Amino acid sequence: MKKIGLYPGSFDPITNGHMDIVERALKIFDEVIVAVVKNTAKKTLFSQDERKQLVDEIYKDNENVKCISLDAKLTVTLANEINASAIIRGLRAMSDFEYEFQIASINRSQNKEIESVFFAAHDKLTFVSSSMVKEIALYKGKLSKFVHVAVESALKKKINSFDK
Ligand code: ADP
Q: Is 130 known to be catalytic?
């Protein structure tokens, strides 16, 4: 049976840090499903559709990576529906640990069959976050080392639309 991992997150926008996790998760899972979460707690720069479109664009030639929107549903419910055996998350620093540990415990309380799997960030990418790339984009800095070209142009377009 195919091993499927569900990678949920805001992906506002997807960064090289997220992409590194997807790539490494593919060493363990046959398929990685990226779930773009609506996220009511955070105000996002990109709409849920825009965030999903960027992930779709990046992985259009990789049949082992798919993207779906996650809305009004628990992550474990979605994981169950798509036959995912695990939820994938990334850890950048100790500061991520407490939050991630809490989420993993909550997810286990809802469905004990679905494991949480954590990948340690690559040492070159520990400091890369969606908020950091948004900040760089806002002040017209260099983005190419942190995001895919599709994300770079989407960020520039979005920021330019604010200048008008
Ligand atoms: P959320 O808002 O759900 O935390 P994010 O899009 O910010 O969503 O992140 C999704 C997941 O990817 C989280 O587990 C986060 O720790 C991880 N992640 C983000 N950036 C990196 C990175 N540079 N290296 C490794 N993991 C990362």
A: yes
Domains of the chain, start order: 4-162 (3.40.50.620)
CA of 159 to the centre of ligand 1 (A): 22
DSSP string across the chain: ---EEEEEE--TT--HHHHHHHHHHTTT-SEEEEEEE--SSS--SS-HHHHHHHHHHHTTT-TTEEEEEE-SS-HHHHHHHTT-SEEEEEE-SHHHHHHHHHHHHHHHHH-TTSEEEEEEPPTTTTT--HHHHHHHHHTT---TTTS-HHHHHHHHHHHHHHH-
Residue nearest to atom 17 of ligand 1 (CA): 90
Average pLDDT over residues 141-153: 97
pTM: 0.95
Instruction: Select which of 92, 108, 122, 158 is catalytic.
Output: 92
